[in-house]
Predict the 3D structure of the following.
Amino acid sequence: MQIAINGQAGIAMGSPVKVTLLAFVVGSFLLIGISRLTGTPIRERLQDVKIGLKTDRWILLGGIFGACYVMLSAWLAPMLGTGQLIVLSLSGQLLFSTLIDQFGLFKAEKRPISVNKIIGLILMFIGVFLVHFA
């Protein structure tokens, strides 16, 4: 649903950047509300973020990749269609998660790439091609 909503919002607002800003502002207010409901002060949550950044600055990539994902979905969904974009997105996630596991990136446990994983990725990319051009 998120890709379809972002795509239509991008058309309505005339800019995927505006959609991304709106999504993150709304998300921030939601998280503030959740923090209030759970009784955890915002100051405490921000302190936890500060501690995390001291040890692993790369965790900022999560926000950067999240913003890029929302912005690209708002931009590409009207052009490619929701289904095609979801298939592409899942294919990319599977490919990069396999590489992250193979090399133990971002402190992930190393898990070697198997022949079955390679076959599965190839079939997924063939599926992307077939969905797009069929």
In short: Residues 81-134 form one domain.
